[in-house]
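Figure 2 data, in text form.
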Amino acid sequence: MVQTQSAREARPTNRARELKALIRNLSCANPRWGSPRILGELRKLGIEVAKSTVEKYRLRHRNPPSPTWRSFLKNHVTELVSIDFFTMPTVGFKVLFVLLVLAHDRRRVVHFNITENPTAQWTAQQIVEAFPWDSAPRYLLRDRDAIYGERFQSRVESMGIEQVLSAPRSPWQNPFVERLIGSVRRDCLDLVIVLSERHLRRILSMYFDYYHRWRTHLSLAMDCPEGRPVQPHNQGTALEFPEVGGLHHHYERLAA
């Protein structure tokens, strides 16, 4: 079958369009790459083009490229902790403030505490209790709430911790602790009536014990923060055990 002249002319046009899109995609996905790097990558893909062609079609970034926020969280996951407050009303209409300190690497709740009157000094003391001796992390991620005042900042700096502040009104920049707070509410606090500070402390202690030892996490490849071994089928019968006052259950195989 003989090709028409229009079909033969369309083929180079399509290739040019694909090449242009590929160069733009390479420069967009790799903002630190200059024309030589893009040219080298194209050659590894079997595409021979002139440097002037790459210069013509690659994207120009106005500002010096910098790692994205998500990249920062990923690159420093083993040395980063997050802190945040959430509130919980009691049956007597008192408002309790709960502070959470979360280690990113295994989604572990390193420390929590409750108060009716949070202050910068009280919050700073919680960091000291969360990281005694030489166990302080390298980075501490928090929002710009006024509770983290001068006393808090000076105490954290004295421990050698670098503070990383999220942008105003940007809870998505502190995603791990925000997700933890959501889990605490959905899995636990939305299902109970809190009577007092002592009652809330007991409920949260039970929940975090379940959270660390038994609750599987998608981000941990369906493992638990403390690590939960896989039990083979021949180890025994799967039995159910209540957790958090029966709000949840865990399952283990036990020999008869």
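Caption note: The two ends are 76 Å apart (CA to CA).
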